[in-house]
Amino acid sequence: MYHLFLLVNHGGTPSALADTVDRAGMSCQVGIELEQLDENGAKQPDAVLLDMSTLDQPDARRMVEECHSRRLPVLAAVPRDAITTYDPSLNPDEMLISPVSEAELTVRVQQAIFRVSGPSGPQLLKVGDLSIDQERYDVTVSGRRVALTYKEFQLLVLLASNPGRVYTREALLSQIWGYDYLGGTRTVDVHIRRLRSKVESPGHSFVETIWNVGYRFKVPA
Q: What is the set of domains in the chain, with CATH numbers?
């Protein structure tokens, strides 16, 4: 299962979150700085969990930015009684309200990992003339490199990893933008249209619209 790095401040008492991680079947290392991950023998985490009950906003913001620079999935656990003062510009990969159930914590961790690393499986996806290198974030069609935004890339990887599966707009919105995204499903349509304009051409059609439902990636012939 997953290994988390639980970040707290110097005087924090992270026992509640650490216990939840343990009950969820995950392991965790408790620390006060990400630099601890650079020590010899330190186990690299699958994701970083911020205990916002012990961190002030400046420290939390610095840690989120450092996680992004290290390409480490980062989650912020915000106490329920502090949710009204939560600053969304903190921008972790996932935000959860604590106390949190073991099941929700697991799902949120999986979602954060997906947002940063894409779905588990082969790092190189090839569908006909379409090639997706998940490690290098490179997409080519017939050898031509295509420049995609991060959200467009995430959409393409998710759909191409599950050819034939129909995703509703709501499902795509949840998996790519997050449960708490306040925009509407129109956002999905806009991004799909832009994605198609970049990767598709006459004779090269990959994404199908399922009217009144959503989208799917064509099953290779």
A: 3-117 (3.40.50.2300), 124-217 (1.10.10.10)
Distance CA 91, CA 196 (A): 28
> 3-state SS string over 25-87?
CCEEEEECCHHHHHCCCCCCCCEEEEECCCCCHHHHHHHHHHHHHHCCCEEEEEEHHHHHHCC
Question: How far apart are alpha carbons 128 and 220 in whole angstroms?
Answer: 7
What 3-state class would DSSP assign to 12? coil
Neighbouring C-beta atoms of residue 137, cutoff 10 Å: 12
- For residue 14, pLDDT over 60 is answered with no
Amino acid at 220: P
Report the share of the chain in percent with pLDDT over 90. Answer: 39
pLDDT digits (tens, 9 = 90+) for 142-159: 888 999 988 899 899 889
**Look-up of token digits 């992270």:** 14
CA distance 41 to 43: 6
pLDDT digits (tens, 9 = 90+) for 56-100: 889 999 999 999 888 899 999 999 999 998 888 899 999 999 999
What does the alpha-carbon distance between residue 142 and residue 55 come to, in Å, rounded to a whole number?
Answer: 49
- CB 42: neighbour CB atoms within 10 A? 13
Work out whether the CA dihedral 217, 219, 220, 221 comes out positive or negative: negative
Return the residue matching tokens 């190189």. 124
